[in-house]
Design brief:
The protein is mainly beta. The protein has a domain at 52-73 and 306-391. It is built from three helices and 28 strands. It has helices at 222-225, 287-293, 362-370; strands at residues 25-28, 66-73, 87-90, 94-99, 104-109, 114-117, 120-121, 127-128, 131-137, 141-146, 151-155, 161-167, 173-174, 181-184, 187-193, 200-206, 211-218, 235-239, 242-246, 252-257, 262-267, 301-304, 308-312, 317-321, 326-331, 341-343, 346-351, 383-389. The protein has a five-stranded mixed beta sheet with strand order 1-12-11-10-9, with no helix packed on it. A hairpin with a 3-residue loop joins strand 22 (301-304) and strand 23 (308-312).
Length: 391
């Protein structure tokens, strides 16, 4: 049996001392009428029709597109274990891993050896209570979204605390599970909550001056007016110079330029997508109905390589190029967790320790066997699977 999970005592300290941490704290609040920039939206955006080039559309398994490059054993000190790889960000010389269950943010070298924790739990500057999103930021820095305190913390290349941004309470706060983009020092982009149906879905603001500049993306306001959850955000990522947005209430994906102009949109090839009429019977008291709707396929996650985008719908992957052209609409996940993230042409996923070794696919099993991992894998941390897109 796998060892009992132990919080990494040596990694996380509840100390709230502020003596050694520089306090650089900002707050932000958006006026209700701040984002009425409908001029940024094209009235009739170009719609991309799904197409299926010969060969690629015939593949049925995700592993037919991805080739395993390596599997890393993630080692932690003194046999302390963590539970899951909730999120992973790949840097030039390391991997940073988030374990939401244990509120851990850890850095490992390229060989999978533990280096150090990033930040610590607490309520002081540079400390987090419930880290939910980690994100690679400008200059190899790391951003952590803490849902409990409602702030984003920035750590430099040495993983020293540098800055934190407090996001105001509703109706002007970043979504608690929202992805954010901070690839330039003066540009922070994220979905945010507002009761203003005319406001855009995404806001771009300057984290140095703390002033919003512009927004983009039309809100699906019918979901709120009919009593459904107001969380219309689902997927938000940047590939090359474009932002991709999708909602759990729709099968539409929108692609915006880095200036906020809608350049294209396309519908995912889903047989029974959610539509506006699905919400006619929903009220705040019909949670069962709302839950039933969310068993339907819907866009849940974007993972992009240099040329491709993998869109996870909960049941399968839809593969497109970075213009939104569908290349394969029915890639079934392999016997691994959904894709975590990517860097260049590499794609990362998690392999969980299993007592039944037959549950591993054949290729993974051979690599684990060759590297001598099978003897201890039942009582070990999750493993990191590194794949590359096949030529």
């Amino acid at each position: 049996m796998r060892l009992t999970l132990i919080t990494l005592i040596i990694l996380i300290s509840g100390c709230s001392s502020q003596d050694t941490i520089r306090n650089t704290t900002y707050s932000i609040n958006f006026p209700l009428n701040e984002q009425k920039t409908t001029s940024l939206l094209v009235d009739k955006p170009k719609t991309i029709s799904p197409s299926h080039p010969s060969g690629l559309d015939e593949l049925k398994q995700l592993d037919q597109v991805l080739e395993v490059k390596d599997i890393l054993r993630l080692t932690t000190p003194d046999s302390h274990l963590f539970s899951r790889i909730s999120q992973l960000e790949a840097f030039d010389n390391s991997y940073v891993i988030l374990d939401r269950a244990l509120n851990l943010v850890m850095e490992f070298d390229k060989n999978g050896v533990f280096m150090a924790p990033v930040g610590r739990t607490g309520q002081g500057p540079g400390e987090y209570q419930a880290p939910f999103v980690i994100k690679k930021c400008f200059g190899e820095k790391l951003g952590i979204l803490d849902t409990t305190s409602g702030k984003v913390l920035l750590y430099n290349e040495k993983r020293e605390f540098e800055q934190e941004i407090y996001l105001a309470a509703p109706p002007h706060q970043i979504y608690p599970d929202a992805n954010f983009i901070w690839k330039q020092k003066n540009t922070f982009v994220a979905p945010y909550i507002t009761q203003n149906f005319e406001a855009t879905r995404i806001v771009n603001f300057n984290p140095v001056t703390m002033t919003p500049s512009w927004g983009f993306g039309k809100r699906l306001d019918y979901t709120r007016r009919k009593g459904a959850s107001g969380w219309e955000y689902s997927c938000f990522e940047q590939f090359n110079e474009h932002y991709w947005i999708a909602s759990p209430y729709s099968n539409k994906v929108e692609i915006y330029s880095n200036q906020g102009f809608l350049s294209s949109s396309f519908d995912l090839p889903i047989k029974e997508p959610l539509k506006e009429s699905d919400f006619d019977e929903i009220t705040r008291h019909t949670k069962k109905r709302n839950s039933e709707l969310f068993t339907k396929e819907r866009p849940l996650k974007f993972v992009g390589t240099k040329d491709l985008v993998f869109i996870f719908t909960g049941y399968r992957y839809i593969l497109t190029d970075q213009n939104g052209k569908t290349l394969n609409a029915n890639l079934k996940p392999a016997k691994i967790r959904p894709l975590l993230s990517s860097k260049g042409n590499e794609v990362y996923s998690e392999i969980l320790p299993l007592e039944n070794k037959d549950s591993f696919n054949a290729h993974d099993y051979e690599i684990l066997k060759q590297k001598g991992y099978l003897a201890t894998i039942e009582d070990d941390n999750p493993y990191l699977r590194i794949s590359v897109v096949k030529p």
